[in-house]
């Protein structure tokens, strides 16, 4: 028994002998370890930036000189704003109470964010999403049966939609 525990194991692919009581070799000394060469240090930003900074300053100086003389800079003269930007700018200029509109926009974004969080929290509950899906399918089936299957019901639905549209838009 004692001789069996002290016997050495040999690995056929290597000439190294492994002893159960011997300490392990570090991976750096092992012949199977591959080391990669180190990367060179990244270039210092200050070496490549002086010419970029100088070019940018020259561009700004040209634009300032062009504006001072009354002519438009080359970049501004050739670039046109998209139609939607013009429309938004005109609508914003017409607004009298910009503070209230900005507050409403921020409140809308916060409400949208909160409702997305609420919906994702409900979606994580185990049985609720499936139950809500069944309710939606059932209501869609009931609505289709009640309003879309028969011609008089379809006509009544279309007339109700037209009346609602006229009430909202105020047209006669």
From TrEMBL:
Keyword Transmembrane helix: yes
Keywords, sorted A to Z: Membrane, Transmembrane, Transmembrane helix
Region spans: Disordered: 1-49
Main location: membrane
Example of a GO cellular component annotation carried by this entry: membrane
Pfam families assigned: CAAD
Boundaries of every Cyanobacterial aminoacyl-tRNA synthetase CAAD domain copy: 87-170
Topology of this chain in the membrane: Multi-pass membrane protein
Localization of this protein: Membrane
Protein name listed in UniProt: Protein CURVATURE THYLAKOID 1B, chloroplastic
Transmembrane stretches, start-end: 99-121
Keyword NAD: no
UniProt feature, compositional bias: Low complexity: 1-15
Biased composition (Polar residues): 24-33
Family matches, as PANTHER family: PROTEIN CURVATURE THYLAKOID 1B, CHLOROPLASTIC, PTHR33222
């Amino acid at each position: 028994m004692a001789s069996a525990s002290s016997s050495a194991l040999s690995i056929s692919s290597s000439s190294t002998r492994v002893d159960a009581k011997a300490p392990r070799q570090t991976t750096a000394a092992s012949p199977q370890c591959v080391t990669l060469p180190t990367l060179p240090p990244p270039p210092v930003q200050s070496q490549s930036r002086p010419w970029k900074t100088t070019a940018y300053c020259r561009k700004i100086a040209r634009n300032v000189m062009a504006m001072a003389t009354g002519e438009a800079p080359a970049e501004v003269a050739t670039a046109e704003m998209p139609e939607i930007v013009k429309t938004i700018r005109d609508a914003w200029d017409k607004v009298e109470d910009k503070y209230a509109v900005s507050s409403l926009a921020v409140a809308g974004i916060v409400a949208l964010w909160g409702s997305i969080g609420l919906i994702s929290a409900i979606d994580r509950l185990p049985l609720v999403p499936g139950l809500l899906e069944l309710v939606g399918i059932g209501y869609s089936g009931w609505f289709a049966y009640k309003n879309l299957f028969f011609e008089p019901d379809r006509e009544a639905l279309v007339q109700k939609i037209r009346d609602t549209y006229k009430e909202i838009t105020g047209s006669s």
